[in-house]
Amino acid sequence: MGKKGYFFVLDMLFGVTILLVGISLIFTNYISAPSSVQSQSYAQDLLTFLGTDLIKYNSDVKHQMVLDGKISDQQHTIAQQLGIWQFLFDEGSCPECKEDMAFLVDDVMSQISNPTYGVELYFQEAHIESNEENDEVVYADPLFIYSSEGVEGSYSKSQQVIVSSQIVIADYQNQDIIGPYIMKVFVWEK
After folding, report:
1. Is 11 part of a structural domain of the chain?
2. Structural domain boundaries, residue 85
């Protein structure tokens, strides 16, 4: 009779141990998993904001750039202005435009940034090259604009990076349509 009690106790201890180990493994994996849904939403929100916020809205930096003649049309969105500066930088008529891009984005990000996430922003030109057989989209090297960490490529240290992109087209001096450019934002949890 005494042996039956030992087997019952041992069986119960094994069962409880297996349950505790299983539950602890499930909870530790669930808790430590990065939240890609929030990162994706944040990346989309950033692109939406840059693509819809007009230059004319309140900002001392934007106002000073208008006064300095660096921004000619206050009806452009931030993304369109970045596209214009990318165009001028690429054609070589404005070597300081890359710094202007970084300065404007840094000002905007200082107002809307979330300290939970790291962010990098790139601009890339895309154009179509046609030949007799087919049309091919050719991408230029991406131009680094901004990093919340201050260093290009900071996202490479993260385990999970969300990349979101948006096409940017702008009118330049109410005459030429420039672009398309691809604005890419890299978002990761710190």
Report:
1. no
2. 37-189
How many percent of the chain have pLDDT more than 90? 20
15 part of a folded domain: no
User: CB count, 10 Å around CB of 79?
Assistant: 23
Mean pLDDT across 90-98: 89
Judge whether 10 lies within some domain. no
What's the pLDDT tens digit per position in 120-161? 999 888 877 777 788 877 788 888 989 888 778 778 888 888
Residue 29 domain flag: no
CA distances from 101 to 44, 84, 97, 104, 186 (A): 20, 10, 6, 5, 17
What's the domain count of the chain?
Answer: 1
Q: What does pTM read for this prediction?
A: 0.73
